[in-house]
Amino acid sequence: MIADRAILLYPDYLVIPACTALKPSSRQHLRANLLMLAAAMIWGSAFVAQRLSLDAIGPFLFTGLRFLLGAAIVSAFVFATRRGSRRSCGVRPAAASHGFDVALLRDGVILGLVLSVAISLQQIGLRYTKIANAGFISSLYVVIVPMLGVFLRHRTGAGTWIGAALAAAGLYLLSINEHFSIMYGDWYQLGCAIVISIQVMLVGHYAPRHDPLALSIVQFIACGAACLAVAIGFEPLRMADIARAAPAILYGGAMSVGVGYTIQVVAQRDAAPAHAAVIFSMEGVFAAIAGWAALGETLSTRALVGCALMLAGLLACQLLPASRSRDEAEAIAAKQSVESA
After folding, report:
1. What is the CA radius of gyration of the chain?
2. Alpha-carbon torsion (97, 10, 107, 116), positive or negative
3. Rounded-to-integer distance, Cα 284 and Cα 292, Å
4. Per-residue pLDDT tens for 114-146?
5. Which distant-in-sequence residues (6+ apart) come within 8 Å of 224 by Cβ?
6. pTM confidence score
7. CA dihedral 27, 81, 246, 291 (to 10 degrees)
8. Could you say which DSSP state residue 235 is in?
9. What is residue 284's predicted lDDT score, i.e. its pLDDT?
10. Does 85 have pLDDT greater than 80?
11. Is a pLDDT exceeding 70 seen at residue 330?
12. Whole-angstrom Cα distance, residue 212 to residue 3?
């Protein structure tokens, strides 16, 4: 899910504390990659559930129920694993902090409110665009985040600008037709990408201060509660409609938010950030495949080329800076070895 992939895609923004520092083996890397691939497939196919839910209930009601259900599942995962993790770290339960303090609740609510705006834009836009468009355009936050970092004087490499250029060209081919008109829903998806980029930057600001899992739970609850409040005020609430949308709610909440995020947390222990960037950038591809398989949506050759360019832009934005960082690290290590000799 787009709100939490930042943990793996932006390791410079987010630092996840760990009680152990075991060097992962090749088998652990393979396991982590397969788990992340499963998460990307779940997130991509969840766009189908989001679209189908619109036939029964409003976008705010679906988002509210979805995130509250997901928060419950993630909370159960945290509760089930917390004691075992503390024992392996040698921390007594009585001495361990529960993490839910006033500052965390405040920061989590802020993140949740911003997330509710982003996901609501995405959900509303799905009514007016194709699933492939939604999957690729909303993933543009991967490019937008480092570009926003320029205004905060963060270091931005050439990969960001190459990725931005490729993504912009791909967006043009995907969304703008020969008559220079853009699908109405694509504006919502672009707005989602911009808002989620702001949310990722805020996560980078708040996450180092708190337990990331606890922060995510508060964020999900705040997002779900905010959307549910809007739904109560402006959307029809009928149990028959909610029952019709139950399969979509279960998949979008239990699988996408709950299981998908839990898989990510498990995989993150042994994941290489560069591998995560490649695998999670495939979400748009899985969304396009799911839209074709479940709803019969097809893309023109022009749109397919646009999708390919956008995927290339996402990968360039993530992998080129990583390659540069590895080269710089190797150069520093070589220099230090020469000096020590």
Report:
1. 20
2. negative
3. 12
4. 999 999 999 999 999 999 999 889 888 878 887
5. 63, 64, 65, 66, 67, 68, 69, 70, 71, 112
6. 0.79
7. -20
8. S
9. 86
10. no
11. no
12. 12
